[in-house]
Amino acid sequence: MQNTPAHPETPTGADDPRCVPHKLTAPLPVGAECPYPAYTADEQDVWRTLYARMETLLPGRAADEFHLGLLALDLEKHRIPALADVSRKLQAATNWQIARTPGLLDAHDFFSYLARRIFPCTDYIRARHELDYTPAPDCFHDIFGHTPMIMHPRFANFYQKIGQAALACQDPAVEEGLTRIYWFTVEFGLIRNPGGPRIYGNGIISSSGETQHSLTDKVRKLPYRPETLAAQAYDIWHFQETLFVIESFDQLEQEFVRWARDHRLL
Ligand SMILES: [Fe+2]
Fold first, then answer.
1. Which residues are catalytic?
2. In angstroms, rounded to a whole number, what is the distance separating the alpha carbons of residues 38 and 244?
3. What does the pLDDT look like over 37-47, one tens digit per residue?
4. Which CATH superfamily is domain 20-262 in?
5. How far is the centre of ligand 1, averaged over its atoms, from the C-alpha of 260 (Å)?
6. What would the pLDDT profile of 102-114 be if each residue is shown by its tens digit?
7. pTM greater than 0.70 (yes/no)
8. 254 Cα: distance to centroid of ligand 1 (angstroms)
9. Distance between CA atoms of residues 205 and 188, nearest Å
10. Domain positions in the chain
């Protein structure tokens, strides 16, 4: 089961070592155990550039809950945040922590951390020539894109339940459905808003092209129902043609729990 999608509209990065999932042989450092890397000035500038871009693009497009999470995290704009600091803020808000991962994790390892309310997070940043595209998640994707939603109590509970359900899953067909639910919520989810749909999925938020495309009429937007998501195939190499809109994060969690219980995963 894939834990994080490749970004759409991009070439394959299959031969990039960052795309090879790690099977863990020792526990990851968590929270205060995560050291702050010796970033170069150029790496710090890549963070500043990416942050400034998204600050321009996301108002009026991203969900209120994403903006509130970002505000509460008070992420540094001019310097790559320390995982230990982000972890401390998450722990105070929703009792989640951050573990430092060397890259993509084996799916079972990844979900076992989510099930314990620990988000495996990279601490390296993409190169300057990869501003628009990186073949595997970096710390801008993971910190800027994912952690604001984990500040939301209901999303945080939903995300843990995804991990718990994945660990309980034995049936490949159900596992495929769960992968699709992850894709169309955590990575490509939209939420209803009186002014029109807003983005909470990080596969969209971390792609400026997908951010602009996702809210146009070119994308079919369907109501969130786990059964529908589980039956909807997706294409990781192109902009999404179909997205799903939740009514609220309460609905996201409640409906997922119902689906997972129907499949004896929770
Ligand atoms: Fe992701």
1. 141, 146, 187, 206
2. 40
3. 999 999 999 99
4. Aromatic amino acid hydroxylase (1.10.800.10)
5. 21
6. 988 999 999 999 9
7. yes
8. 22
9. 8
10. 20-262
